[in-house]
Automatic annotation (TrEMBL):
Pfam families: LRR_4, LRR_8. This is CLUMA_CG021555, isoform A. InterPro entries: Leu-rich_rpt, Leu-rich_rpt_4, Leu-rich_rpt_typical-subtyp, LRR_dom_sf, LRR_TM_domain-containing. PROSITE patterns: LRR.
Length: 408
């Protein structure tokens, strides 16, 4: 009998210990701070392992403040040992702080994006350094007012085609350092307000032709440090306000015809550290605002002579570490190689007009170092006076050669 009682006592004790332990594990604490950016909860300690687990947040408010004043919640990137362990983003966060606008859960063990709700007021979510593997369907579906979303340094492999479907207010999307190999077609179709898309350092190998077609406000695309080997025809078509495009540090060996069409606002195009072999005018339509083109550290051996005429305002061209040229002075060899490959040396006239709608005739070649350029006269009649200028000086007059290579 006493033996039995003793056994019961032990069991009870063990049970209570488990209870205490569970309770101790589930409480997080806010360190409240009144920062310039807003009244902030820095979240420490606590864990939330399964959806629906008990989870509460403790903490002493600063004088005059209460839960409704909290607009930011964050964890630190280089955590003290008391970093919270949040398998899921607890719904309690949004219940407790109804006016939360910014959620920055760095390095907080977030393994799944399921179960996020009641986050209408949220404008910014930053989840860098978390171990989630999936962007599920309607991720953050309840947070339709998010303008800024950052996810990165996560082993994400699965990108559901409708993961971002509800984020119609998104202005900036950062999705970097993941294992994503493919952006599913249509994945960005509802992001009509998107201005900046950072997809740097993923494992993306190709870009669907229609991927960006709905993103009429897109100004910046960063696709650097991926495994892209080919730029599909019209991959970037009709991005009327695109200003900066990073495609450097990929495996690009080929552009389809019309790869860079209708990019009238493009100012900076980074193509360095790829395997590009040839540059043809058929890849591009004129880019009147382009001032910087980096094509250094490629395998370029031939360039169509009128290629650079598409960039009348180019100021910086990086071309070092290529096969046919290391400097702008050596470009002639690239043109000659092209002409040798084509096998024709027809003297032709290249047309450039102020309306940038005309496509460049892909068969045009010139045989001398002098190109005949037809320009539209200032009175805008378009009658065109014929001027003959040495092609090198006409095209590259303001170019700056930089010998230093940009190391990968
Ligand atoms: C906190 O929010 C309440 C309700 O909006 C407001 O009345 C109060 O002034 C705020 N406190 C501070 C310190 O801003
Ligand atoms: C994340 O937190 C762990 C400790 O919990 C730490 O060892 C690691 O360095 C942190 N990672 C980053 C990127 O800060
Ligand atoms: C957070 O946890 C650590 C131990 O992990 C403990 O020493 C500390 O008191 C806790 N802080 C709060 C505010 O609960
Ligand atoms: C894109 O990536 C490059 C490095 O490859 C970096 O220098 C640049 O700042 C990035 N731009 C954006 C908008 O993220």
């Amino acid at each position: 009998m006493s033996k039995f009682l003793h056994k019961m006592e032990v069991t009870l004790l063990a049970f209570m210990l488990i209870l205490i332990r569970t309770k101790a594990q589930s409480d997080s604490t806010c360190i409240f701070q009144n920062l310039a950016s807003g009244y902030t909860c820095q979240l420490i300690n606590g864990s939330y392992i399964n959806l629906g687990d008990e989870y509460s947040i403790q903490g002493m408010h600063r004088d005059g403040f209460s839960d409704v004043n909290v607009t930011e919640l964050s964890t630190s990137l280089f955590p003290p040992p008391n970093q919270p362990n949040l398998n899921y983003i607890p719904a309690e966060i949004f219940r407790r702080f109804p006016n939360l606008m910014s959620l920055q859960l760095w390095n907080a063990s977030v393994g799944s994006l399921m179960g996020v709700e009641n986050c209408d007021n949220l404008e910014s979510i930053d989840l860098l350094f978390n171990p989630m593997r999936e962007l599920p369907r309607f991720a953050f579906g309840a947070c339709g007012n998010i303008k800024l979303l950052a996810i990165g340094d996560s082993p994400i492999e699965i990108f559901h085609p409708e993961a971002l479907r509800m984020l119609t207010s998104l202005e900036s999307l950062t999705l970097v350092h993941t294992m994503i190999t493919n952006i599913p077609p249509g994945a960005f179709d509802s992001l009509k307000e998107l201005q900046t898309l950072n997809l740097k350092s993923n494992a993306i190998s190709s870009i669907d032709s229609e991927l960006f077609k709905m993103l009429s406000k897109l100004e910046n695309i960063n696709l650097s440090e991926n495994f892209i080997d080919n730029i599909n025809s019209k991959a970037f078509d009709n991005l009327q306000v695109l200003r900066n495009l990073w495609l450097n540090n990929n495996q690009i060996s080929q552009f389809d015809q019309q790869a860079f069409y209708n990019l009238e606002s493009l100012e900076v195009l980074h193509l360095h550290n790829n395997r590009i072999a040839r540059l043809s005018s058929s890849y591009v339509t004129p880019m009147p605002r382009l001032h910087t083109l980096t094509i250094d550290n490629n395998l370029i051996s031939a360039i169509e002579r009128n290629f650079f005429e598409n960039f009348p305002n180019m100021a910086t061209l990086l071309i070092n570490h290529n096969i046919c040229a290391n400097t702008i002075d050596e470009l002639e060899q690239c043109f000659l190689n092209w002409e040798a490959e084509i096998g024709t040396t027809t003297q032709t006239t290249t047309q450039t007009t102020t309306e940038m709608t005309t496509t460049v005739d892909t068969t045009l070649t010139t045989s001398t170092s002098t190109s005949t350029v037809q320009t539209t006269t200032d009175d805008g009649i378009g009658e065109g006076s014929m001027i003959s200028i040495p092609i090198i000086s006409s095209l590259i007059v303001s170019l700056i050669v930089t010998w230093t290579s940009i190391s990968g």
